């Protein structure tokens, strides 16, 4: 049995600079984004018409109800300790056990160094950082890691995860996963962050990117086992060539010493969430790319410097010191290199010969992910969030229609769809009087945070719709273009995903503790709490259910946090019957139309988790925690299918004070080991339908 984290170490967890996230995660994942000034200093808060409807649909909530539903036994992974704070109550409520998909015993908030799942479910580690992917790659040996080993092994800090059909073998599936960032001080022995060796730097470069891994499915248990060296297996790293594609390709803004054509960028960085297109390719968002570039403070290109400031660039040396090995990470030498990051990338997991693309038509910002949907006429729509405090939500609508079928011709056509289309940014208007949105989270008199919105056109092909910006400037400096047209400043828009069942779009707004502070924008109806620690889920309905529509209605489905607190809202569902949820990050849907939400940085003191939320009927707003990830980890992925749920447990043990010599988690390998980010597959213990 793996012991629980000693109390001495557990005490280090919860005092945190930013919600539930550790200082180590802030440093290596986001480049301490929250410690810096808000990059959006634009004065574009929208003051459009506020329409008071005074429709009281649901009445006001009363605070002080009992604490949330915290129930059920927990199965712990790899012999780890079970959740310590489970109260053992039943999850059956006066509302029944929930609709199809939500019929499981909710997992209690806990601080276990384990993956905790409901009774009757089995968690299985599919693949861990350092496991071999390519033919000839060695087994994981952290004491003797090399750049060459890492380039053939599963990368670090798995985030977006997809589980696809295998093209020609029904017993197999194709797992695609990206690798957001590295924490060298926890990965590598003898690591001196002031003076990393060239090999240590090259290991870091190789541990970024994406992995494609064929897995074999056990038909009896549903366990997934990697097939090392399979023909589809690939590693994409921070040095893999990417074709720069779409309307900004070849722009002077993208040219560097090594690439005078502005046509090929090396590698992808800080890939966060993503999406799977209807034609079977993977989209992945380049997020906090600014942190990899050094010498902003001393760069001499004043115009470029001013523009980079809007993307959060600052300071001198970078945290990882890659600039010491590769001058492209030195802004004094290569001021345009960062313009080649911050894109949505597209990878075809079924075609290893096809070079991955950077899709400039989808704009450049700190892309969280990309949620595609087909319009009725066959055009593809992609919804996207820019994960920064007070930044924006976007959508792209393709010009051409998707061709169905799997012919080579259809595939080649579809792989160009994201190069031509129109890019929009969102503006939200509340329908309640501004005076009723007081920043406390108290519901307005119509009983809902809701209203209308519009998509504002930014650029289409080579046409710009933003005064003073050429089209290529809109694509490369998308944040500044959106500032100009009066987009709504949101509370860190993360995943934006359309429901395959209803077409409604769900937005995870993770938190924004700067809302309403100093000169920052104050609460509005879509972002109704000042100093917002716990975030909200926004539900968006496009006009006539047409994703190419330019107007929409919206409401807040969840205002997250402690259900017992007056400032939380769970879709109108009784708050004494729900699980506490904080800092929503990624969203997915089960086959029955329920929403699944993973969290990052739980500010309520528990480990992060995965939650299922009913969207329709009398159960709308019922929220149940399905699993928790190990201490210090974030719940990424997720994949939600009828019989499989996969989460990428990112940065286990990443707590303040953790290092290679002082690991604060032993998950998943047990005593004496360092923690390893890993993909976990959860099935019922009889490999039946989940939540039924
Ligand atoms: Fe990488 Fe927005 O989380
Ligand atoms: Ca309202
Ligand atoms: Ca994320």
Outline the secondary-structure elements:
Elements: H1 7-10, H2 23-30, E1 74-76, E2 116-118, E3 121-128, H3 147-152, E4 158-165, E5 172-179, H4 184-187, H5 198-207, E6 209-217, E7 224-226, E8 234-236, E9 241-245, E10 264-266, E11 271-276, E12 282-286, H6 302-309, E13 344-347, E14 357-359, E15 371-374, E16 379-385, E17 389-391, E18 393-401, H7 408-414, E19 421-430, E20 450-460, E21 463-464, H8 471-476, H9 478-484, E22 490-491, E23 493-498, E24 505-509, E25 536-542, E26 551-559, E27 569-570, E28 584-589, E29 595-599, E30 609-613, E31 623-628, E32 634-640, E33 645-650, E34 678-684
Parallel strand pairs: 9-14
Antiparallel strand pairs: 1-2, 3-34, 4-5, 5-6, 6-7, 6-8, 9-10, 11-12, 12-13, 13-14, 15-16, 16-18, 17-22, 18-19, 19-20, 20-21, 20-26, 23-24, 24-25, 25-26, 26-27, 28-29, 29-30, 30-31, 32-33, 33-34
Give keywords.
6-stranded mixed beta sheet, disordered N terminus, 692 residues, 34 strands, mainly beta, binds MU-OXO-diiron, 11-stranded antiparallel beta sheet, single chain, binds calcium ion
Explain this structure.
By secondary structure, the protein is mostly beta strands. The chain has one domain (7-287, 342-371, 382-684). Strands 15, 16, 18, 19, 20, 21, 23, 24, 25, 26 and 27 form an eleven-stranded antiparallel β-sheet that branches. A six-stranded mixed β-sheet has the order 10-9-14-13-12-11, with no helix packed on it. Strands 4, 5, 6, 7 and 8 form a five-stranded antiparallel β-sheet that branches. It is globular. Residues 1-17 and 46-91 have low confidence and may be disordered. The chain binds MU-OXO-diiron (FEO) and calcium ion (2 copies). One calcium ion binds at residues 430-432, 444, 446, 448-450, 525.
């Amino acid at each position: 049995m793996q012991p629980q984290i000693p109390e001495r170490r557990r005490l280090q967890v919860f005092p945190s600079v930013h919600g539930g996230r550790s200082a180590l995660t802030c440093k290596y994942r986001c480049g301490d984004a929250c410690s810096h000034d808000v990059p959006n200093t634009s004065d574009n808060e929208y003051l459009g018409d506020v329409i008071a409807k005074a429709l009281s649909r649901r009445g006001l909530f009363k605070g002080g109800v009992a604490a949330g539903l915290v129930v059920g036994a927990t199965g712990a992974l790899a012999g780890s300790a079970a959740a310590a704070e489970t109260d053992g109550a039943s999850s059956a409520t006066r509302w029944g056990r929930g609709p199809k998909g939500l019929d499981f015993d909710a997992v209690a908030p806990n601080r276990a160094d384990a993956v905790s799942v409901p009774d009757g479910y089995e968690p299985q580690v599919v693949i861990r950082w350092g496991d071999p992917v390519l033919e000839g790659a060695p087994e994981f040996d952290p004491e003797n890691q090399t750049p060459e080993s890492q380039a053939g092994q599963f990368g670090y800090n798995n985030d977006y995860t997809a589980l696809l059909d295998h093209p020609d073998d029904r017993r197999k599936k194709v797992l695609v996963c990206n690798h957001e960032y590295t924490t060298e001080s926890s990965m590598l022995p003898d690591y001196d962050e002031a003076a990393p060796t060239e090999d240590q730097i090259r290991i870091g470069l190789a541990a970024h990117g994406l992995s494609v891994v064929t897995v074999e499915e056990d038909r009896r248990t549903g366990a997934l086992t990697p097939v090392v060296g399979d023909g589809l297996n690939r590693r994409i790293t921070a040095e893999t060539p990417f074709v720069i594609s779409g309307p900004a390709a070849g722009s002077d803004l993208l040219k560097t010493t090594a690439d005078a054509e502005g046509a090929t960028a090396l590698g992808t960085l800080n890939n966060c969430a993503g999406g799977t297109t209807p034609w079977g390719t993977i989209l992945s968002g380049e997020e906090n790319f600014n942190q990899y570039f050094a010498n902003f403070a001393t760069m001499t290109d004043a115009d470029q410097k001013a523009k980079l400031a809007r993307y959060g660039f600052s300071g001198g040396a970078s945290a990882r010191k890659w600039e010491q090995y590769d001058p492209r990470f030195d802004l004094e030498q290569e001021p345009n290199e960062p313009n080649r990051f911050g894109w949505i990338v597209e990878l075809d997991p079924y075609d290893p010969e096809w070079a991955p693309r950077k899709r400039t038509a989808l704009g450049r910002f700190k892309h969280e992910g990309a949620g595609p949907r087909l319009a009725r006429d066959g055009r593809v729509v992609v919804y996207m969030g820019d994960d920064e405090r007070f930044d924006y939500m976007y959508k792209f609508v393709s010009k051409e229609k998707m061709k169905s079928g799997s012919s080579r011709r259809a595939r080649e056509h579809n792989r160009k769809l994201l190069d031509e289309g129109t890019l929009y940014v969102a503006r939200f208007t509340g329908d309640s009087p501004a005076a009723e949105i007081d920043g406390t989270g108290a519901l307005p008199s119509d009983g809902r945070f809701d209203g209308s919105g519009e998509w504002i056109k930014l650029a289409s092909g080579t046409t710009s719709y933003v005064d003073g910006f050429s089209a290529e400037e809109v694509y490369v400096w998308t944040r500044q273009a959106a500032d100009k047209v009066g987009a709504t400043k949101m509370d860190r828009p993360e995943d934006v995903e359309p429901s395959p069942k209803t077409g409604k779009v769900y937005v995870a707004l993770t938190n924004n503790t700067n809302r309403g502070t100093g000169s920052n924008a104050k609460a509005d109806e879509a972002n109704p709490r000042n100093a917002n620690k716990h975030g909200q889920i926004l539900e968006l309905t496009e006009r006539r259910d047409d994703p190419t529509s330019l107007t929409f209605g919206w409401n807040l489905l969840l205002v997250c946090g402690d259900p017992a607190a007056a400032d939380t809202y769970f879709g109108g569902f009784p708050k004494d019957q729900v699980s506490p949820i904080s800092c929503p990050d990624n969203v997915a849907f089960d086959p029955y139309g329920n929403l699944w939400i993973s969290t990052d940085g739980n500010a309520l003191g528990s480990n992060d988790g995965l939650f299922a939320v009913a969207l329709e009927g009398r159960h709308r707003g019922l929220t149940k925690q399905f699993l928790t990830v190990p201490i210090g980890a974030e719940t990424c992925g997720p994949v939600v299918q009828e019989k499989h749920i996969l989460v990428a447990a990112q940065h286990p043990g990443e707590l303040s004070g953790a290092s290679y010599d002082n690991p604060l988690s032993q998950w998943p390998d047990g005593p004496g080991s360092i923690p390893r980010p890993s993909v976990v597959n959860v099935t019922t213990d009889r490999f039946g339908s989940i939540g039924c």
